[in-house]
Amino acid sequence: MSSVTLDTSDVDQYLGKVMDFSPLREPIAANDIRRWVHAMHFPNLVHFDPDFAAASRWGKLVAPQSFAIATDDGHGAAPACVGCIPNSHLLFAGDEWWFYGPRIEPGDMVKNERIPFDYTVKETGFGPTAFQRGDNNYYNQHGDPIAKQRSTSLRYNAQAGGASVNEADFNDPDWSDEEIVDIENRVFSWVQMLHDLGHKERWWDDVSVGDQLPERVFGPHSIASFATEWRAYIVNTWGSMNLRKNDLEALGFTREMAGYENDPDMMKVNPFLTDGAYYGPSRGHLFPKYARRIGMPRGYGYGASMGSWVTDFLSGWAGEHGMVVHSTANYRGPALTGDITIQTAEVVDKMVDEEGRHLVQVKHLMTNQRGVKMCLGTAEIALPKKPG
């Protein structure tokens, strides 16, 4: 692959310029939020149960911090993959989030101002690879900033990606009945933590450097669970957005691979062809044949979902009186069908910032059952301080 090069010259013209986005056609509905937390494996009652939500600090159902990305038409990756890089494929490689406070709730209309940021080219296992970044700035209908997401995509030679597949990873792991019971118990252990915390505060004063956050486990993942995630992104329901025209061939995909995913013109003629679960580059998540063309051994999860798992893990621990204010998530490997996901984190610092917020800093890690790193990063979480 030493002779392989990437032509990134077309990307330069887009950097720093606001690009189009696809606005929602209707306000956020309560069931949009419920569908999201269900798909993201986040059973926090405040986001789906009316009675629990009414007794919360908000007095009503609100969306989790991770929900902003569900309102975007490109899973947050759009400003990080503009410009034509011929004969390339791309993967979502990570994101950085800043949260400003306002929660999305039923009735809101969310707008996303998207600005391509920068890129660098480095050598990876795929050969020369462009690490391209772009910003998503989410606002509600009042103009209040909700969050900023700086996403990163990997863009690499298509042939290099397909050549990297290991046939030994084609098949799902075979879990015994006893192992499944153990997984289910580990899954519920984190759910029980959410129930135990309930509406109570997790006080900053009671957290110490070196503390380990409770382990979060979910899975095994499957084509069914990935399809459930896909449908929880609002854009992936026909007619939910005023879609912008997206030229997937300009992103390096061939017509056969690109299809008509989310094409607003084709949607009025034959919407089946526009559904990325079945046609277009996104079908690799659900169909191993196409996953292997871009370097994945079998069905694999969505990068944006992985970033949401990070936010939900940390905000669930913080409770309704806390908030993730900043986080980084660097993706190292995919969630594959048959695997489980294990999240851990450690408190590494405590501080009071310039705004007077009491913060804890954590290092978080996501692995599968074999200890393969899927995602890692740091985050700052605001917690209430005990009065007096």
Q: Count of helices?
A: 9
Q: Roughly what is the average pLDDT, rounded to an integer?
A: 93
- What is the H/E order? HHEEEEHHEHHHHHEEEE
Measured by DSSP, the beta-strand proportion falls in: 15-25%
The gross shape turns out to be: globular
Write down how many β-strands occur, each being a DSSP E stretch of 2 or more residues. 9
Largest sheet: 9 strands, antiparallel
Helix percentage = 10-25%
In which order are the strands of the major sheet placed? 2-3-4-1-6-9-8-7-5
Distance between the termini: 64 Å
List descriptors.
alpha+beta; 388 residues; single chain; 9 helices; nine-stranded antiparallel sheet
Outline the secondary-structure elements.
Blueprint: H1 30-39, H2 50-54, E1 88-99, E2 111-124, E3 127-139, E4 145-157, H3 158-163, H4 177-197, E5 216-218, H5 223-232, H6 255-258, H7 264-269, H8 288-291, H9 303-318, E6 323-331, E7 341-352, E8 358-367, E9 373-382
Antiparallel strand pairs: 1-4, 1-6, 2-3, 3-4, 5-7, 6-9, 7-8, 8-9
Helix pairs in contact: 1-5
